[in-house]
Amino acid sequence: MKRNIGKNYSPLFFLSALGNGGLTVAFFIFFMFMTPHPDTPIATFDSVWTSLAATSLPVKALAAVCYALMLYFAFNHLRMLVWNIREYRLFKKTDDYNELIQGSNEISLMTIPLTLTMTINVMFVLGAMLVPGLWNIVEYLFPFAFLAFLATGIYSLTLFYNYYRRLLTGGNFQHSKNNSLSQMLSSFTFAMNAVGFAAPAAMSENPVMISIAAFCSIFFFAIATLLAIKNLLLGFHAMMDKGISREASASLWILIPILTLLGITAIRLHHGFHTLFHGSGSPSFYFIWCSSIVSIQIFAGILGFVIMRQNDYFSEFIHGVNLDPEIAAARTPASYALICPGVAFWVFGMFFLDKALIHSGLLNIFSVPYFILLAPLLFVLVKTIRVNWKLNKRLLQEGTE
């Protein structure tokens, strides 16, 4: 990987680590929804190995591939996280950093807590899938997870308040130069905080832990929703007035991961409230909620695809075809914003299949209709991995300009 890139660095490079963290979770999803785990809310080392013991050799081979890819992307996530922290510390010593924090691009700093929160999720997944018997002591681990999410949540709020303090006291926000949905990064970050807190709220059996974690999750859920509405209105107003910024075209898909995070948050809280209030889940809730989320994601996905194909974003910013060497923006790390939507669509698509269709009795797992519905999700996941590889090669590999 490149080193000491100085003024060419941008906090948006944290999206490279974020994307690889998301792909780690993406391969965990195979075990989460395709292997039985009746004694635990998520797949664990013990449940996976127990179920694989009774399967055929081809299934064992596929599981081994998923395990390997999960570990590979986890390694890449941690490697890119360390690289970003190092380069960011060097970047803070440049004049470009001072210029960054005086403009609207200061919002890009929120990719840092966004990525750190993903790191906590990655470590949780690795612990569950690699450590035998971990779930036997998980109640002792939830307080530490809660404190970690609290730290990233406070960091997110600190960056947000610093940014808006300057805007609301000094003004001068140039709406015409923010003709994209890049300001939605704040919503993305707070949605990640919300889904993080929702994990102990859903999986703990301690009423105190459930209550505190659920409140914090709802707190960030509400903020993410409020800011998403505000930023959608302002962003589309500027885009319809000036046209979309080509280098920020990928931001049109940012709504997809935000919806996935908020969708999973609601599902986790719904599960936690069953434990807290001794209720039972309603199939209609899962069907309506998951269907609504997936519908908006498909709508946003098609809209973004049509726009990015129209302005040749994919050919120039991903593949480097017909690339003008004088346009530095064509190598912008903002292109990494394409990875999270692909991962998010796969992840919530699996939630849709499991919660909305299988648990409601409308679909049988591993049936022909199941694989028909699974096919487009797998297609998106494979395309996302391919784009991630291309971006790593073009933007991070040593020897590239």
UniProtKB/TrEMBL annotation:
Q: Which NCBIfam families match?
A: TsoY_fam (NF047644)
Question: Upper lineage ranks?
Answer: Bacteria, Pseudomonadati, Thermodesulfobacteriota, Desulfobulbia, Desulfobulbales
Its name, as the record gives it, is Uncharacterized protein
Protein source organism: Desulfocapsa sulfexigens (strain DSM 10523 / SB164P1)
Give the stretches traversing the membrane: 12-33, 53-75, 114-135, 141-164, 185-203, 209-229, 250-273, 285-308, 334-353, 365-385
Signal sequence coordinates: none
Q: What InterPro entries does the record point to?
A: TsoY-like
Q: Which UniProt keywords apply?
A: Membrane, Transmembrane, Transmembrane helix
Keyword Cell membrane belongs to the record: no
- Answer yes or no on keyword Transmembrane helix: yes
